[in-house]
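Risk register update: the risk of archive-format incompatibility is retired. Evidence:
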Amino acid sequence: MNPLRVTVIGAGVSGLAAAHRLLELSKEKDIHLELNILDAGSKPGGTLSTVEKNGFVMEEGPDCFITEKPAGLELCKKLGLDDQLIKTNQTLKQSFILKNNRLHPIPEGFYLLAPSRVWPLMTTSLLSPLGKLRAAFEPFIRRRRDPQDESVGAFVRRRMGKEVLDGLAQPLIGGVFNADPDDLSLSACMPRFKEMEMKYGSLLKAMAARKLKSQAQVSGARYSLFVSFKKGMQTLGEKLASQIPMESMWLQSHVDSLNPTDKGTWEVSANGRTQETDAVILAIQPVKIHSLIGHLDPEWSKLLLGIPAHDSATLNLGFRRVDVNHPLDGFGFVVPSKEKKLVVGCTFASQKFEGRAPEGNVLLRAFLGQEGVDLFKAQGESSLVEKVLEELKPILNLRDRPLVHHLASYASSMSYFRPGHLSQALRLEQKASEIKGLYLAGNGLRGVGIPDCIAAGQNAAEKIFQNLLKKEIAQ
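Archived output:
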C-alpha cells in the first residue's frame, strides 16, 4: 500500500492534536504515514505560549482550560502530563466587575447570564433598584418558541433586563469571547441557557432546580473547573510537538496556495516549495482558510467570511506586592463596555495560580479589546503600556511602576459565532465532506476553548482514517 500523505496547516493546539492522533492511528493500523505540518510561526503551539522573565511566569495566550469538556484532560493523561496540572487557588471565591473605577464583587452564584440565587442579585451594588426589580420579574417572562437563532444579548435583555446585560452579562461574556453579546449566537455559544428556558420557562427556576452547587459558591466563572500547568500552558504545546518527528514540522512556512488536482490529491505551496498530499487538515481560523480555498466557489467564500475573528492582546505586568495597594482578594475583574476602557479584563494571575510570581511580588494580566490592539498598532508598545497603567492605577491603587512587563498580540486569533452560526458550520462541514481529502479543524466551527480545539483536530484525523477504510472496503 502506498504511504498516506497528510498535510496539516496550522501548528496551534488543533493542528498538533490532529498530528498526534494521525501518528497514533497510523501505528495502530500499521499504515505508513508521510506527515507534514506547516505553520507561519516560529514555534509550535500557536497561542499556547509562556514567557518567563525575572521569575514571573507570563502567559501570552490562554492561561488555563476547562475540565468539564473531556478532550483536554484525556489528552493530558495520554501524554503523561496529568501530574503537571494545577488547579486554581481554592481559597478564593470571587471575582469583580468594574463600575466607576471601583471593583464590585460579582453577585454570589451569578454564572455568565443568570443567577443561581436571587438574594445576592437583589443586594448587589451593580444594579439599580429598578434593574433588580426587572431581574426578579424574570420568571413571569414567557418563553420564546421561535426556532430562529437569537443573539446572546437579545436573550439576556429579554429575560433579565437591560441592566443585567450591560452591568453583569456583557462584561462576563466579553471576558470569554471578546465580542459584543448582540453579535453572538445563543445556540452556538450558550446553548445550555436556551435549554433552561425551554425546559423550565425561566432561568431563575432552572438554576434553582439544578442547584448548581459548584457555581453557587463561586461568582463569575466556575474557577474550580479550570486547570493550568505548573510551568505554564506552553507545556502542552511543547509536549505535543515533542511527539512529532522533527522532519514533519515545517515552521516559518507561510502557505501561499492550496489547490485540488485532477488526481484527487492536493498541491500545497509554501515558501516557494510545492508538495502533493492525499489529505489536508486546515487547523486555522475560517478567515485564514478563506485565503486558501475561498476561490473554489462563491459559497466557500461567503461561508468562511461569515465567521469573523478578533485580534487579541494581553499585557502581563509584574509588580512588587507593596506597590499594589489592593487586597487582590479574588481572581480578577472584568470591565463593562460602557466604562470605555482599553482594558476589558484583568486577571490577578499570581493569585489565580501558584508559582506565577516570585515571593513578595504579584503578576497582573490585562486583556485588551480591539481599541487597545488598534492603539498598539498605531502608537506602539510603550504608549499602550502607559495608557493601561493609567487605567489600572486608580482601580488597584498602584504606587509604582511594574518591575517587568510583556505584551503579546495575535492577529485574527479568536473566532466568534454570530447568530445562525450552527447552520453555517454544518454547511461548511458538509461542503468539506464533499471534497476528497479536505478536512476542517481549528476554533472556528464548534468551539473556541482548548478542549474544543483538541477535539476538532482529533476528529479530523479520525475522519481521514475512516475514509481510508471505506476506500479499502470499496476496492
